[in-house]
Design goal:
It is found in: Cell inner membrane. With 342 residues, this protein is an alpha+beta fold. Helix content is 37%, strand content 25%. The longest helix is centred in the first third of the chain and has 35 residues. It is flat.
Length: 342
C-alpha cells in the first residue's frame, strides 16, 4: 500500500471522527436548551401523580369553567327554566368536541334585547351549563328568556334565534326540535303581562341647594356607606346584593360626563333587591343623612317632601309587593327574578 493510500485512509478516519464529535456537540447543545425550556419534573407523569401545577381550562359558554377534576358524570346545577324561557334543542348526528362547540357558539349570548343561555348534554351522560375540557356532546339547548323589561319576546327575536340554531344544525349535521312560533309568542305575552303587575321601582330625590362637583358628591356617598357595584354606587345588603343604588342627575356615577351634579336619586328596584320589611325606611334614613351632608332637600319620586311619619306605611306596601313576587314564583333578587326583571 502506497503512502498516498495510507494518507487518504487516515484522512477519511479523521473526517469521520470530526463528524461524530460535531454531532455529539450539537446533540448536547440542543439537550441543554430543551432543559432550559422544559425542566425535569420531580414526578414522571407515566409513573404516578404529577407535581402540583396550574389546571388547564377550555373555553366555555361565557361562564366560569369547570375544573378538569370535576366528576364527569355529575350534572351542573344551572338548568333551563321552563316558566320563563323557551328552548330550541339541537341533537347532533355525531358527538361534538368542546373546542368545536365553543367556536360555533362564541358570541351567541343575546338576541335582540333578550339574553340567551346555552346548555349541552355530554355524550355518555351529564348535563352541562358550561363546557369542560376534553368532553364530547350529544346535543345542545338554546334557551331564550320569554320576557324582560324590554317587553315580550318578539317574532323577529325568535326568528333570529331559530336562524342561529339552523346554522348550528347544518354545521354539525344535527336535528332541531322547538315549539311553534305562535305558541312561543303567546307564552311570551302572558309572562310579560304577569310581570308588569309585579314590577316596581321606588325613588327618592335629593335636590341640591347648590351645585357640587361629581367627585365631591361621590365622596360624600362613599363616606356615608355606599360601595361601588359595577358602574353603580350601591347600598349593599348583608348578602352582597344592592338594597338601592344612586344616580347623579339620572345617570350612573361611573357614566356621568358633566363635572357638576345638581341632583342625586336613590332608586329601590324591588324585584332585584332582597325582601325587607323596612325597605323604604332604610332608604329614607340614608336619604335624610345625605340631605344633611349635601345641603339638599329630600323629595319623593313625585317631587313632594318626604314626611317622617310616612315611612312605615310605605314599608308595608312594598312588603306586600315582595310577597306577591314570591307567590308568583319570583323570589326577590334571585337569579331567576333578575333574569326577567332586567
Amino acid at each position: 500500500m502506497s503512502d498516498l493510500q495510507i494518507g487518504l485512509i487516515l484522512l477519511g478516519v479523521l473526517l469521520i471522527l470530526v463528524v461524530v464529535m460535531f454531532n455529539w456537540w450539537q446533540d448536547r447543545r440542543i439537550r441543554q436548551k430543551m432543559q432550559e425550556h422544559f425542566p425535569e419534573r420531580d414526578h414522571d407523569p407515566l409513573m404516578g401523580a404529577q407535581a402540583p401545577g396550574p389546571v388547564r381550562r377550555e373555553p366555555g359558554f361565557g361562564a366560569v369553567l369547570a375544573q378538569d377534576d370535576d366528576d364527569p358524570a355529575a350534572d351542573d346545577d344551572a338548568e333551563v327554566d321552563p316558566g320563563t324561557e323557551v328552548v330550541i334543542d339541537i341533537s347532533f348526528a355525531q358527538p361534538v368536541g368542546s373546542a368545536q362547540l365553543q367556536q360555533a357558539v362564541q358570541g351567541l349570548v343575546r338576541v335582540g334585547s333578550k339574553p340567551v343561555r346555552i346548555f349541552a348534554e355530554r355524550d355518555g351522560g351529564g348535563h352541562r351549563a358550561r363546557l369542560r375540557a376534553n368532553e364530547n356532546y350529544a346535543s345542545m339547548q338554546l334557551a331564550i328568556v320569554l320576557a324582560n323589561r324590554s317587553g315580550p319576546l318578539t317574532d323577529i327575536e325568535w326568528s333570529q334565534l331559530w336562524s342561529a340554531a339552523q346554522g348550528l344544525a347544518e354545521r354539525f349535521d344535527g336535528a332541531i326540535e322547538a315549539p311553534e312560533q305562535d305558541e312561543v309568542i303567546r307564552r311570551a305575552a302572558q309572562l310579560d303581562q304577569l310581570c308588569a303587575g309585579l314590577d316596581a321601582q321606588v325613588g327618592l330625590i335629593l335636590r341640591l341647594n347648590q351645585t357640587v362637583s361629581a367627585g365631591a358628591a361621590r365622596q360624600v356617598l362613599e363616606d356615608a356607606g355606599f360601595l361601588p357595584y359595577g358602574r353603580q354606587l350601591a347600598w349593599m345588603s348583608d348578602t352582597g346584593v344592592p338594597r338601592f343604588t344612586a344616580l347623579f342627575d339620572g345617570i350612573a356615577p361611573q357614566e356621568i360626563k358633566s363635572e357638576s351634579v345638581n341632583r342625586v336619586d336613590l332608586v329601590l328596584d324591588l324585584p332585584n333587591s332582597p325582601a325587607d320589611e323596612q325597605a323604604f325606611s332604610r332608604m329614607a334614613s340614608v336619604g335624610r343623612d345625605l340631605a344633611r351632608r349635601l345641603n339638599a332637600e329630600l323629595l319623593d319620586d313625585q317631587g313632594r317632601p318626604v314626611l317622617d311619619g310616612a315611612d312605615g306605611t310605605v314599608d308595608r306596601q312594598l312588603f306586600d309587593l315582595y310577597r306577591k313576587l314570591e307567590l308568583a314564583g319570583f323570589e326577590a333578587a334571585s337569579e331567576r327574578t333578575v333574569r326577567v326583571f332586567s
